[in-house]
Amino acid sequence: MDRISVDLSGTAGFVGGHELTYMEGAAEGAAHSMIRGMGPGSEFLGWLSLPHDYDKDEFKRILAAAEKVRGESDVFLVIGIGGSYLGARAAIDMLTHTFRNQLYKARKAPQVLFAGHNMSAAYMSDLLEMLEGREVSVNVISKSGTTTEPAVAFRMVKRLMEEKYGKEGAARRIYATTDKASGALRRMADAEGYETFAIPGDVGGRFSVLTAVGLLPMAVAGIDIGSVMAGAADYEKVASGGFPGNDCLKYASMRNILYRKGKSVEVMVSYEPSMAMFTEWWKQLFGESEGKDQKGIFPAGVGFTTDLHSMGQFIQDGARIMFETVINVDRSAKSAMIPDDPEDCDGLNFLSGMDMGLVNRKAAQGTLLAHVEGGVPNVAVNVPEVSAYWFGQLVYFFEMACGVSCRLMGVNPFDQPGVEGYKRNMFALLGKPGYERERAELEARL
């Protein structure tokens, strides 16, 4: 079986081989304790078995719902924030045509758009205007149904849908992905008659991309979700093995070694614009999982070669506080040949007849060498190609590596206590009942 692999040669000048060896036992112990359902956050380990132990009946309903949406809608609007939209958006951007939303009519698949991930009045106003005259279906995603951003967006979109289709017609076009038994969205969906899909109670939001949270939007976009699950299932087998053949444990270990040497920022690097949202998913996965107790590696992201003309200067010559994790794709599914120019005004005829993919790979190799020489350790995560199968492998690779890395650092990977601070302040300042004392205190500070 082909698998994702990790190349640590770009860390050789910074980390001794013995240091990685010293981490083997701890990394294996962290992985195996999670697999056995032990340790901090053990009530949220359902994602570990999802690739093989998912609800097959619900999976069929997801496929059927996706087919219905594709047959009757110009737009599929996904409402969610954080883990409720990042994974799906990452998959759609990575695995479909770069300009799919502009070509949706020719491709006979709905535009997939997103809402509920910000509080911008301009964004929502423009979105509602854009939906006018379009056939629309909606997927609202929230375990509780009370998260402010998606709840506000859904309230507005729900009114639009009911004005457009009537209450019963709207209900046939709204799909709710939420808790199986409780919560405000579950109660609303049951009362209104929306078709529902479950977010397992033992799977946290940022680990939910392989549930209906991610699978329904992917399927609507035309992605083979069976292949996504197959890729994840194959890497699940790898991730349960011992250190020598388990590259996600090596990646997790190397992150911790570099962190202890003062590398407090990890920069994910991709050379394909289609992977920008995958980087955003990865940033949430590691940032929300690891940034606790005054600890953690700050996850950042760049898209090369674009950002070599901006952030590249800092990475090459700035503060030596970072390391890079580079996603290398071995084979491109598409090509674009560079033509010859008889006049050679730009001096680039040495590239004539080359595929742009080859130029991109050479840029990646040259950049890695330059950054390592400049004092930036590099970890390479090698993926054979971009496909639904390999997306599934990547997801499981990073989820397992994240859990192990957090436990090596001594934090609970599966809670997010710091997220609540801004919510309390926002509710108080907006005048939510029960927050009167806090409101007065906050307004006095402003």
Question: What would the keywords be for this entry?
Answer:
globular, five-stranded parallel β-sheet, five-stranded mixed β-sheet, alpha/beta, 446 residues, 48% helix
Summary of the model, kept short:
The chain has 446 residues and is α/β, with parallel strands linked by helices.
Distance between the termini: 59 Å
Helix content: 40-55%
User: What is the chain-wise order of helices and strands?
Assistant: EHHEHHEHEHEHEHHHEHEHEHEHHH
Overall average pLDDT: 94
Strand order across the largest sheet: 1-10-9-7-8
* Number of E strands: 10
Structural class: alpha/beta
As a percent range, the share of strand residues is 5-15%
Shape: globular
Unreliable residue runs: none
Q: Give the helix tally.
A: 16
Q: Mind telling me the C-alpha Rg?
A: 23 Å
Major pleated sheet: 5 strands, mixed
